[in-house]
Amino acid sequence: MVEVAGDDGDRRLRVDLEVDPSDEWDCPIVSQSERASDVTVNAVGDECTVEVQPPGEEGIRRARGQISEDCLCRVFQEFGYVPRVRRVDEGTVSVTTYVDDRDAVREVVATLRETLDRVRLVRLAVVAGPEPTEQATVDLSALTPKQREGMELAVVRGYFDDAADVSLGELAGELEISKSALSQRLRSAQAKLVTDAFEGVDD
What we know:
The chain is α+β, with helices and mostly antiparallel strands.
């Protein structure tokens, strides 16, 4: 869990991200262990202190680092959100945060992508309160890579918003595929997500 100055008690959306650092990213979260399921980060100002528990080891590894402009924590600090590092797996950092709305999701993801090698939106959930209960979840990990790529871009760009200012053609252009191909991907992805959402629900 990451403890950073701020309060996320009234956030409405839970966002799960997977982040791959760039080669120039000197982050103690990753440098201490390529794998960890217990990560604690205290990031205040320009400094951070990291504690990680690598699997199979009894001791906790501790390190201190400087928060640079391309640091994960710096990006979240700029937006006033609190990132929680859930695990590290082969250098990929899994992060959860709570934001106000989908506009915030787009802004955070876009800013992270300016400095990091790869940022994937894994899950987006509607939640309530400081101890949230998930009410509706978009689990993009259940999709094929192409479906997830299309859905992630559509969600982040606000394609599904009531007042969407991006067209299917613009999204298809960004992905360098035809509109019909993207339309098919989105329909298949939506069908998969709806099926999964209602799977196991009793009448």
